[in-house]
Amino acid sequence: MLSEQGLTLHIAGLLDNRQGLLSAPELAIQAGTLSNLSGSLVAGNGLTLQTDGLFDNRDGKFLAGSGRLSVGELDNRQGLLQAERDLTLASRNGLDNTGGRLDSQATLTLDLGAGLLNQRGLVSAARIDARTGSLVNASGRLEAQNTLLLDTAGLLDNGNGELLARDLLLKAAALNNQNGILRAERSLDLQAGQVSNGAGGRISAGEQLTASHRPGPAG
């Protein structure tokens, strides 16, 4: 479906765009669930998506000038979410980005209640501001050209993974960085209850490295 003007869709149940194309200068979608398996959602300007259920973007593409998503759950395995400007994603039941990619040329904001699975995935932006229940970044990469702020309520598993930024601020109940890389060109601030940095793990900053204890829920 192609539109030369704005396109707004309200679907109470399933919106099935498997191997399909929805494209408009402005695209707004509200649906119970959305299947974009191997499909494409494209908007040169704003692309807004709201669903209380699953947004299935496996092998799919979400391409926007600026993007805003509020979903119950997001499956982005081998998928692509990309915005030329800001990209904002809230997912109540988390995000599976295994082998997938999230990319913003400006600010990427993530609010992921149940956590982020980024195994072999790539998350990149000029600035990243992320809150997650947990993060598994095994062999994955989170990279910000400027600042990366990551607040993880539970475990931050960066085994064989990379967290890279000019300025890096990490908060986690526990950090596993075995054979992983935490690198800041300028400053790195790490707040964690427990840290495992063995098996060749590397934590480095070009100018200032600060590490402090983060109390658990009991204080």
What would the principal axes of the Cα set say about the shape? elongated
Order of helices and strands: EEEEEEEEEEEEEEEEEE
Number of domains: 1
Tell me the strand percentage band.
over 45%
Treating each run of at least 4 consecutive H or I residues as one helix, how many helices? 0
Q: Could you tell me the number of beta strands?
A: 18
Tell me the Rg in angstroms: 18 Å
The residue ranges in which pLDDT falls below 50 over 5 or more consecutive positions are none
Multimeric status of the protein: single chain
| Strand-pairing-aware structural class | mainly beta
Main pleated sheet: 18 strands, parallel
- The overall pLDDT average reads 95
**Residues in helices, as a percent range:** under 10%
The first-to-last residue Cα distance is: 54 Å
Region (Disordered): 197-219
Protein name: Filamentous hemagglutinin, intein-containing
In words, what does this structure look like?
The protein has 219 residues and is mostly beta strands. The protein has one domain. The protein has no helices and 18 strands. The chain has strands at 7-16, 21-24, 27-35, 40-56, 61-75, 80-83, 87-91, 95-96, 101-112, 116-117, 122-132, 135-136, 141-144, 147-157, 162-176, 181-196, 202-205, 208-213. It has an 18-stranded parallel sheet that branches. The model has no long low-confidence stretch (mean pLDDT 95). Residues 197-219 are annotated as: Disordered.
